[in-house]
Amino acid sequence: FPFPPNGSRVVFAQVAGRWQITDDETPAGRKTPGLQGPIDDAFASPFLCVRGTGQPWNASVQKYADASLSRFADEWQHYFRGSLPIKDDVAVTSDDIQSRHLILFGDPGSNSLIAQSLSSLPLKWTKETLQFGDQEYSAAEHLPALIAPNPLSSKTQPDQAQPGAKGQSAANQKYVVLNSGHTFRETELAKLNYLLFPRWGDWAVLKINVPQKADAPLTEQVLRAGYFDESWRLTNSK
Question: Which of 57, 86, 183, 194 has the fewest CB atoms below 10 angstroms from its CB?
């Protein structure tokens, strides 16, 4: 291979079964450093939590999403000594999309940014069903939690886009997260730092459990969880 001068970056791509050097430093749709997951990686740099203001598809799912955001806010204030950044979906600006990871709570009915992102995410979600890979779940009792590249760059104003690598907008270098704060909980935060590691990977399918009492702890059952492949596709689970 004709290698470039010392200090230059070399990127290989597999084309027609053979490896070759490519000029594309950031292949479209691929995991790259700083945009590789897992869910918890979104909270290591500026982010914004977004709550929905629309009509939810399923009331139980919305109750869980609201309680999950409230739990995250409480843990953030108590253990990270700050106020969790939160906006309504209708108040999110193009600058927010370009400069922050978006943490979206709700479903496509209640949160307009989830609805706008849905066609670019590796799942199918309707009022009745949630399909993740080859498995289908009741949308009234299940919720996806996941991290993916921000698909909303085309929704921002072109004159406000901030160029990134190879002309990509800054939004393309940000995450969108659905229905999850940190995947470790207060039981780990209250103990030792070495317990603060990601629990779910890039995605999880949650069976929701909405507390009947206001002071009861919020819990969920993780039915499946795993990592997307290098092209952000769903290929494996546990």
Answer: 194
